[in-house]
Specification:
The complex is a heterotetramer, with two copies of chain A and two copies of chain B. Chain A is α+β, with helices and mostly antiparallel strands. Helix content of chain A is 35%, strand content 24%. In chain A, strand 5 and strand 6 form a beta hairpin. By secondary structure, chain B is of the alpha+beta class. The chains are: A alpha+beta, B alpha+beta. Chains in contact: A-B, A-C, B-C, B-D, C-D. Bound molecules: adenosine-5'-triphosphate (2 copies) and magnesium ion (2 copies). Chains B, C: This is Structural maintenance of chromosomes protein.
């Protein structure tokens, strides 16, 4: 699968609702200093469950769009959604887990087709999953999968199914961090491997 | 627990020298540089550290701290990609990792990222960059600008695959 | 002791907003941005801190940590040059300070450094850079390369004043 | 005054004797990654008395040219000299301090001229000062002014006369340090001002 698009609402320097995408296999984000490139990466990190301290904000409210210090009293809501598209073989993987208990191969094939049709109808040919995270005006944060509120554990579990391990975070490199990776002490590297295994 | 650690370590250890070679090979040095990982304590890996060493093409062994800014960046990227091959996430997000690189290393890195993301089983890459000789190798661009009147960020998307690929 | 501190502080405080304006003004924002310094404890300055705030052109006040990488670099340069004006050393050495800057900020910075070094009473500047739109504004270049056979660094010097100045 | 040239001998990646210069009012150092640009800045910092830990070396011996780890046993000597050229008005400044005690202006002018002639003859029309720092094969470091060994205090005092305050170091920005300057805490900034005043 891959990341198809990001939907922002009042997140950092992105005012109102904005949809960003589609992202291809190799997409580059460009623009002048201070335009909002790193804020876009912060949005992706935020929706995956990364804490606000790593996103240059001391509280969650700092991540909500504000024109100036006064404006931050406006108490806007903010949210980010990440739409993840499954590869056709991803579907296979998902279903593989469910089908293990069924009968022989022939039956398996048929039942898979039926299952997919049913699933397709249910979700309108849906082969995408929508992960969302919101910030309410009281500063609380909510997690949703396909618009259904879930606990953070369920959320992280679903992400893990697609190979997105937010704890290890080895797939996000924030601005200025790259050189620090090479200078990690042997102890730090041991810890990194521990998280990985 | 120790066995799982050694499993992860051995996988990455095999990949690091190949990844570093791919990132550092060029016309001047067709075989690229060498990089390796060693465990201080094989039996009880948690008690020891993991040492990472990188030797740029035609250079001898030196402490990592003696390498230059650009050399450290390339070594770090090789380590990240090697680690990633063990636990592949579906996408990468990199923020101006090319800041310390000279023109030729930017080109090498861009080609490397492109080769890792396109094709079957590749990992999707989303990379923030200020350098045109990096982003001209991408499939699509997300252009961010500041809208003065609205005092906020705005975005435009460009599909580069419609244009002939730059050499 | 307190009086000397306030003397240094007041000198730099006057210069910081002018320096920051010079570094940030451009065709889009002729008046540039605003920067200022404040003392937490005027009478006993050692007991309190010194707060530094920079507001890029057309942006409102925000904590320094919310600024972008490029915006922080420009603010830091303004502070350095303002501090330098109080205790001017005869020369500066800067190592790839333009790494996080986009093309237009690199140009602004290069013109600023050039204006501060040339002319009467200027401070000599020695600046390491990888970006051609920075170093093409220098008076001379020191080109460093690695000599493969000898396994060491070699240097060549170029006097750019012989060629017509680039626009 | 200004920095006219740097003379290196077996310093970091610079093998043997190399003279680098002349440096103009605005000089840029360029070259590929790993070629030796930052090592040149380390040479300038070293000769001004900066400690080796700031120059990416744990001991002074690490700053001596070595082909590989074996080679570092060669016990080469290393040294850096910085040739500083005085402006004509710099001379004035230096002499100003000495002349304060003399007679009326007329006398002053004459005596200045005489003094300069004498000084010129002595030092061969010299209007440059040569600061040198060496590393012996035992790892000790020596300071010299115009080839005469001096203590570090005398060395720092002479540098101070030309406005080079190594303690404050506000005129040297090492690779990667620039962004940290803007993020200094209020306490750090107070300390910086304290060193300045
Ligand atoms: N909550 C917020 N509301 C509005 N604007 C915000 C908010 N948080 C941050 N910003 C603005 O976002 C800008 C920084 O954006 P960002 O860090 O994404 O820039 P960038 O494009 O990465 O720039 P660079 O190339 O310099 O790294 C700052 O100028 C800041 O004022
Ligand atoms: N004592 C030494 N003897 C020989 N070579 C050395 C010594 N110390 C450091 N080096 C070499 O110097 C190189 C680093 O040089 P330097 O940091 O000056 O590069 P640079 O030109 O600044 O590169 P970048 O643009 O990547 O910052 C390293 O590859 C290292 O091997
Ligand atoms: Mg950024
Ligand atoms: Mg360097």
């Amino acid at each position: 699968g891959h990341l198809s698009r990001i939907e922002l609402e009042n997140f950092k320097s992105y005012k109102g609702k904005q949809i960003i995408g589609p992202f291809k296999k190799f997409t580059s984000i460009i623009g002048p200093n201070g335009s909002g490139k790193s804020n876009l990466m912060d949005a992706i990190s935020f929706v995956l469950g990364v804490q606000s301290a790593q996103l240059r904000g001391s509280t969650l409210r700092d991540l909500v769009y504000a024109y100036d210090v006064q404006d931050s009293k406006e108490k806007r809501n903010a949210s980010v959604s990440l739409v993840y598209v499954l590869n056709t073989n991803d579907e296979e993987e998902e279903e593989e887990e469910e089908d293990e208990s069924e009968g022989r191969d022939g039956d398996k094939e048929n039942s898979k087709k039926k299952k997919r049709q049913k699933r397709g109808e249910e979700e309108g040919e849906k082969n995408e999953v929508r992960f969302s995270r919101t910030i309410s005006n009281s500063g609380a944060s909510d997690y949703k999968i396909d618009n259904k509120t879930v606990t953070f554990e369920e959320y992280a579990e679903k992400l893990k199914q697609f190979g997105i391990l937010v704890k290890a975070r080895n797939f996000l490199v924030f601005q200025g961090d790259i050189e620090a990776v090479a200078q990690k002490s042997p102890k730090d590297l041991t810890q990194l491997f521990e998280q990985l295994s | 627990r120790g066995a799982r650690f050694r499993g992860a370590f051995e996988h990455v250890e095999k990949r690091i020298s190949e990844t570093y070679r791919e990132l550092t090979k060029g016309s001047a040095h067709p075989t690229g540089g060498q990089a390796f990982l060693t465990l201080e304590n094989y039996d009880e890996p948690f008690l020891g550290g993991v040492n990472f060493t990188a030797m740029p093409p035609s250079k001898r062994y030196r402490e990592m701290e003696m390498l230059s800014g650009g050399e450290k960046t390339i070594a770090a990227l090789a380590l990240l990609f090697a680690i990633h091959s063990y636990r592949a996430s579906p996408f990468f997000v990199l923020d101006e990792v090319d800041a310390a690189l000279d023109k030729s290393n930017v080109e090498k890195m861009a080609r490397f990222v492109r080769s890792k993301s396109l094709g079957k089983g590749g990992t999707q890459s989303i990379v923030i960059s200020l350098k045109d000789n990096f982003y001209d190798k991408a499939e699509s661009l997300v252009g961010v600008s500041r809208d003065q009147r609205e005092a906020c960020s705005k975005v435009l998307t460009f599909d580069l695959t419609q244009f002939a690929e730059t050499a």
